[in-house]
């Protein structure tokens, strides 16, 4: 069928000639005024040029907070975000910041003509501006008030326990992102400055810029060769002069550095997987729902794109439309953990349904690991997954954020459409089969359930050891 | 064609050749096809958003003889395509609410089809008609067009579908009657624009919205010749043309809306509220006034600065003939008087302290809001398509960005003075 599609499109192209917008693409000017000093920068021409998104991903997060000063990374990001916003003014652009356990991300959204100046201002504030004591004080007071409000909250308790599940005992990675009342009180401008000096380095920061094609540096634009399958696919629907404008710029003299990820694997990593032994924790809490986390370590041989599709398949199986009436919410995602990546399923369910749901989660993964999907079915799921991912990344800031993650992980941004279309049923089956033993956390009331399920056993090995603790 | 499969290559080839044949027979030059829209170029003095504005300017406008009119916005890459088709609709008095029923029926069908491929769909009733939108992978373009074709096809008026759609409408009507914010908005709208009927109709017209009437309204309104399709994709126009031919109802003799008098709505509903609600509405110039948009942001800042311990809100209503600025507040009894003073005094306070810098910032924010909304293909076709609805000019969205840039201190001061001179209409709901 594909051959016919291609032929049809060729006839159309011969009849109609090139499309106007492709013919009028401007010569890309030099990226004047854009801050320099970054080792890895990825650029992408967005579908539309109404705004420019610039994302800076700094390889330092809450896991790098000093003991006794937990919350430093989060507080620093909040303060710098506000300082950048104030320096930019309300009309020039907006800056947002997020901190996770391994990285800190700043996102700038600006109008195209204003963006070089906005990028320069944001860059200088984030890396160089002195910490504003008044802004720090305001955020510290706000954070202390939030922590007081959330103290003894079961949500906070679950979050802490769920983080510990994914790391080695005592790992700094699992420290609370928001800190504690004691640690936040101890943080000063000097603490923030020391953290910034250690982790906020342009040469270690991944930067991605997504905006109008005219912003792409002229001499660097070199379309990546599409795979055969993609060439057919895009031609089939009549795309005019398909080009992949994505490009990595390496501002250091050594071209080889382009393909070198900034974030190296930690030396204590278990080869292949983030952990080799499963575990189980039952936390008894007097709450009205049960929270379940089941986490599987992904094999390092599994590509990020395959892992993302695997997560999507697990989610679709667990949370179809209409949803299971016993569930409040289901989330499936990839989490970068010390030593690798984990496929994490979080479900909030009626306590009475907790056993069934735990079995449903492990059973779903076991089914995906039991054999490759039928080709037709896989093709349909892949098509759906591709659309969902493309729609998720339609906002330029979302695409840019993902690209910075790619830069840190593999040294280059992925071409998602190409990579997704390159997946096959065997790859997904292999990804599921290569999952390691799960770590499970159950957090909820004790209804005397046995954790026996009517689902097939996990292919990832025997039942993990169980630990139970209680707090009523 | 099975719903979960891409259309066959043979189908595409046939439709493409058909489109080419139509072009040749039309006697018009091949490029531009059916006439190309004028492209407004060049930055305005002091306008720093010329490049962003260009993204809102259509590349190509096609006017095929049998419709729909196609407005194309070029896009980079092979990622996401978005389409929005708008259908003008004027309801007669006894048909009020029919558009809402058509919207609900279409959305239910679109949603089921979109879920199969992960696409996103929406349907809206606007003051000018109905719009249907779909967003998905460029590679699924044919299927996305098929979803839109289904959206504008004859409604499924089987009892179960129609009952569900009417039930949704009934709930929406009840919310207007029974919630304080709905009641305030309805009362203000009736007072400031008495000729503008509510899009959701009233309880009295609901029983008359049966299958026959719904199909009658559809047949009258959903004709391809009056539809406008806004497309964001990297595809050549011929492919779009081929994929969208034959949409809508068969051509029929022109007929207007039923002009029989509407049944009188005698139903009374009691609003239950613990707080006092108060609102003021002001006529604020012509429809889609850029000065009103900037003034709304300034009023929101001013009202927030004057508020404390209660909820306040500023809204800008785009009615068919005019813009309306609405200030509302809700407060528990102890704060009710203060809330009322804040709402009533905000325009005077803003006028007294209006300055050039604040207007410039608000103008830039209003402009940035428009461009941010348009940063995705779906947002772009929504913005351009919606802006076109009143007059059909494809450059309206682009021009609006330029107009927002030009709003200055004198414009805002003049509008505020007019609003103060004419005074507001008021509405109130007490516990």
Produce the secondary structure layout:
The complex is a heterodimer of chains A (472) and B (431).
Chain A lengths: L1 H15 L3 H4 L16 E6 L6 E7 L13 H17 L4 E7 L4 E7 L4 H13 L5 H18 L3 H12 L15 H6 L2 H11 L6 E6 L16 H9 L10 E4 L28 E6 L5 E8 L6 H15 L8 E11 L2 E10 L4 H15 L6 H18 L3 H15 L5 H6 L3 H9 L5 E6 L21 E5 L2
Parallel strand pairs in A: 1-5, 7-11, 7-12
Antiparallel strand pairs in A: 1-6, 2-4, 2-5, 3-4, 8-10, 8-11, 9-10
Helix pairs in contact in A: 1-9, 3-4, 3-5, 3-8, 10-15
Chain B lengths: L8 H18 L23 H7 L3 E3 L6 E5 L6 E9 L9 H20 L2 E7 L2 E9 L3 H11 L7 H20 L1 H13 L18 H11 L6 E5 L4 H8 L31 E11 L3 H17 L4 E8 L3 E10 L1 H21 L2 H18 L3 H12 L7 H11 L2 H14 L2 E5 L2
Parallel strand pairs in B: 2-6
Antiparallel strand pairs in B: 1-2, 3-5, 3-6, 4-5, 7-9, 7-10, 8-9
Description:
The complex is a heterodimer of chains A (472) and B (431). Chain A is of the alpha+beta class. Chain A folds into two domains: 60-204, 2-Layer Sandwich (Cytochrome Bc1 Complex, Chain A, domain 1), CATH 3.30.830; 279-470, Metalloenzyme, LuxS/M16 peptidase-like (Cytochrome Bc1 Complex, Chain A, domain 1), CATH 3.30.830.10. Chain A is 39% helix and 18% strand. Chain A has helices at 2-16, 20-23, 72-88, 115-127, 133-150, 154-165, 181-186, 189-199, 228-236, 304-318, 354-368, 375-392, 396-410, 416-421, 425-433; strands at residues 40-45, 52-58, 93-99, 104-110, 206-211, 247-250, 279-284, 290-297, 327-337, 340-349, 439-444, 466-470. Chain A has a six-stranded mixed beta sheet, with helices on both faces. Chain A has a six-stranded mixed beta sheet with strand order 9-10-8-11-7-12, with helices on both faces. Chain A is globular and about 55 Å long. Chain B has 431 residues and is of the alpha+beta class. Chain B has helices at residues 9-26, 50-56, 98-117, 141-151, 159-178, 180-192, 211-221, 237-244, 290-306, 333-353, 356-373, 377-388, 396-406, 409-422; strands spanning 60-62, 69-73, 80-88, 120-126, 129-137, 228-232, 276-286, 311-318, 322-331, 425-429. In chain B, the strands form two sheets. Chain B has a six-stranded mixed beta sheet, with helices on both faces. Chain B has a four-stranded antiparallel beta sheet with strand order 8-9-7-10. Chain B is globular, with a radius of gyration of 23 Å. The model of chain B is unreliable at 1-48 (pLDDT under 50). At the A-B interface, helix 1, helix 2, helix 9 and helix 12 of A face helix 1, helix 2, helix 3, strand 5 and helix 8 of B.
């Amino acid at each position: 069928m594909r051959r016919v599609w291609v032929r049809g499109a060729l006839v159309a192209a011969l009849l109609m000639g090139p499309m106007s917008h492709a013919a009028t693409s401007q010569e890309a000017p030099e990226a004047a005024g854009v801050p320099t000093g970054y080792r890895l920068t990825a650029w992408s021409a967005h579908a539309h040029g109404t705004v420019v998104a610039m994302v800076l991903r700094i390889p330092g997060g809450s896991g790098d907070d000093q003991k006794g000063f937990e919350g430093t990374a989060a507080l620093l990001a909040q303060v710098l975000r506000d300082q950048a916003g104030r320096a930019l003014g309300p009309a020039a652009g907006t800056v947002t910041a997020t901190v996770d356990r391994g990285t800190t991300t700043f996102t700038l959204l600006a109008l195209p003509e204003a963006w070089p100046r906005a990028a320069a201002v944001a860059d200088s504030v984030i890396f160089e501006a002195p910490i504003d004591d008044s802004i720090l004080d305001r955020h510290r007071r706000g954070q202390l008030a939030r922590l007081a409000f959330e103290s003894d909250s079961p949500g906070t308790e679950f979050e802490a326990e769920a983080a510990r599940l994914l790391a080695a005992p005592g790992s700094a990675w699992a420290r609370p992102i928001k800190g504690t009342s004691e640690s936040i009180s101890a943080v000063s401008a000097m603490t923030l400055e020391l953290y910034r000096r250690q982790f906020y380095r342009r040469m270690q920061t991944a930067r991605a810029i997504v905006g109008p094609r005219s912003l792409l540096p002229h001499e660097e634009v070199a379309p990546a060769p599409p795979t055969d399958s993609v060439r057919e696919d895009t031609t089939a629907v009549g795309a005019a002069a398909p080009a992949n404008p994505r490009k990595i710029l390496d501002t250091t003299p050594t071209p080889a550095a382009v393909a070198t990820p900034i974030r190296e694997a930690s030396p204590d990593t278990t080869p292949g997987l983030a952990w080799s032994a499963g575990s189980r924790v039952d936390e008894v809490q007097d709450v009205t729902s049960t929270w379940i986390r089941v986490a599987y370590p992904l094999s390092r041989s599994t590509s990020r794109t395959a892992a993302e599709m695997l997560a999507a398949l697990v989610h679709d199986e667990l949370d179809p439309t209409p949803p299971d009436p016993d569930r409040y919410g289901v989330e499936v995602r990839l989490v970068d953990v010390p030593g690798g990546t984990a496929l994490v399923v979080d479900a909030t369910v009626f306590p009475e349904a907790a056993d069934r749901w735990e079995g449903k989660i492990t059973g779903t993964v076991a089914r995906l690991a039991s054999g490759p999907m039928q080709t037709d079915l896989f093709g349909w799921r892949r098509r759906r997954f591709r659309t969902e991912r493309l729609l998720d990344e339609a906002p330029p800031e979302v695409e840019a954020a993902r690209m910075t993650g790619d830069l840190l992980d593999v040294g280059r941004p992925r071409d998602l459409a190409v990579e997704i279309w390159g997946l096959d049923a065997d790859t997904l089956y292999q990804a599921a089969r290569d999952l390691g033993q799960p770590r499970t956390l159950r957090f909820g009331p004790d209804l005397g359930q046995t954790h026996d399920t009517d689902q097939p056993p996990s292919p990832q090995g025997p039942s993990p050891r169980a630990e139970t603790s209680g707090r009523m | 064609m099975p719903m979960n499969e891409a259309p066959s290559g043979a189908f595409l080839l046939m439709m493409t050749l058909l489109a080419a044949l139509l072009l040749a027979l039309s006697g018009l030059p091949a490029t531009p096809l059916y006439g190309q829209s004028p492209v407004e170029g060049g930055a305005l003095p002091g306008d720093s958003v010329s490049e962003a504005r260009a993204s809102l300017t259509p590349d190509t406008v096609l006017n095929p003889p049998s419709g729909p009119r196609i407005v194309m916005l070029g896009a980079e890459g092979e990622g996401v395509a978005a389409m929005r088709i708008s259908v003008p609709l004027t309801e007669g008095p006894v048909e009020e609410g029919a558009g809402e029923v058509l919207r609900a029926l279409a959305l239910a069908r679109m949603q089921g089809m979109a879920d199969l491929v992960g696409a996103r769909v929406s349907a809206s009733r606007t003051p000018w008609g109905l719009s249907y939108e779909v967003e998905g992978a460029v590679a699924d373009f044919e299927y996305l067009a098929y979803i839109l074709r289904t959206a504008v096809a004859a409604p499924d008026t089987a009892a179960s579908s129609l009952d569900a759609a009417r039930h949704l409408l009934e709930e929406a009507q009840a919310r207007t009657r029974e919630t304080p914010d709905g009641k305030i908005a309805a009362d203000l709208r009736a007072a400031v624009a008495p000729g503008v009927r509510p899009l959701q109709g009233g309880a009295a017209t609901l029983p008359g919205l049966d299958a026959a009437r719904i199909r009658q309204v559809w047949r009258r309104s959903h004709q391809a010749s009056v539809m406008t399709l806004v497309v964001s994709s990297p595809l050549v126009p011929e492919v779009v043309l081929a994929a969208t031919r034959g949409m809508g109802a068969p051509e029929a003799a022109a007929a207007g809306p039923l002009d029989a008098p509407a049944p009188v709505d005698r139903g009374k509903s009691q609003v239950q509220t613990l707080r006092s609600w108060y609102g003021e509405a002001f006529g604020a110039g012509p429809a889609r006034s850029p000065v009103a948009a900037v003034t709304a942001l300034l009023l929101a800042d001013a009202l927030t600065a004057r508020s404390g311990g209660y909820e306040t809100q500023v809204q800008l209503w785009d009615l068919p003939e005019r813009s309306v600025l609405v200030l509302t507040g809700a407060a528990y009894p102890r704060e009710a008087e203060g809330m009322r003073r804040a709402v009533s005094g905000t325009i005077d306070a803003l006028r007294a302290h209006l300055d050039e810098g604040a207007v410039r910032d608000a103008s830039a924010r209003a402009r940035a809001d428009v461009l941010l909304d348009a940063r995705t293909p779906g947002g772009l076709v929504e913005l351009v398509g919606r802006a076109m609805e009143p007059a059909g000019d494809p450059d309206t969205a682009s021009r609006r960005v330029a107009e927002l840039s030009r709003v200055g201190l004198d414009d805002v001061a003049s509008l505020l003075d007019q609003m103060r001179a004419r005074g507001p209409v008021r509405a109130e709901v007490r516990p």
